[in-house]
Amino acid sequence: MKTVELLNSTPERLDIALAKSLGISRAKAQRAIKDGRVFVDGEVATAHHLVDTSKAVTIEPLSVEAQAKTGQLPVVDIIYEDDDVLVVNKPSGVLVHPTEASNEYTLIDAIIAQRPQIADVGDNKARSGIVHRLDKEASGVLIVAKNNNAFNHLKQAFAERLTSKHYTVLVTGKVPDEVGTINFPIARSSSRARMAARPLSQEGKEAITHYEVTKRFANATLVDVRIETGRTHQIRAHFFALGSPVAGDTLYVQRGLKQFPIGRLFLHARELTIPLPSGETKTFVAPPPQDLENFLTTLHEV
Predict the structure, then answer these.
(1) What does the CA dihedral 146, 152, 157, 160 come to, rounded to 10 degrees?
(2) How would CATH label the architecture of 2-59?
(3) Which residue intervals define the domain RNA-binding S4 in the entry (predicted)?
């Protein structure tokens, strides 16, 4: 069973709340409710049931139906491995795990092809061993659990914010301060595909993003980003709300700002520090890939 984190403190229909929280269509939420897979305070729920953040909502995991895969298995670039964890450098353009909207091969497909035992790790077969995620368009360090003890340990480390995550990010325009913190709450927007960072609203989940300017260019700023929370699209939504969307982002686009011809999102998970099941705390590093480094050489530094 999966616990659903509701976003609104005011009552609304369960199917609407479920669609917002899980980022699925309302029809798909209604189907899950109709199938008896959704529970409110331990009882099977109906679509018109009113819920808010005081209610405990759980759902049986939505299955990703078996289907023919397209494309090729991604390359698995291993940074580190022991008996408990596998740390990889995820390439841009690759999904971390399967989704209902895509039948392409994912990073976890490729990992399981090399480490079959990971298929049985975790509480969701579609996300075997996955304890955190990177957007499809992003690249960088990703840690995967190789057994259930490691899975529980790593999930707890992320939940208790015992990790440190640094990203190399190029944003459009000029970030006002050399060092800053963005702490706008984040909720799913009405478009469902995007998240909305709302500076003046208390609705949504707490999200904290720290940044430090590394280099300034004529129409862009290179920043080192550290996030305390790990909300969906957090960095992208926060800098979009700040008026400086991430370069190469085709989802969070601000009218009137120059679009850079990168061909990918300029967001790279460069460094992850985390306590391992062995008791040792390690830092894993993946330098920005060459395509991002090459693009920086085309910009005029100021």
Answers:
(1) 160
(2) Roll (3.10)
(3) 12-70
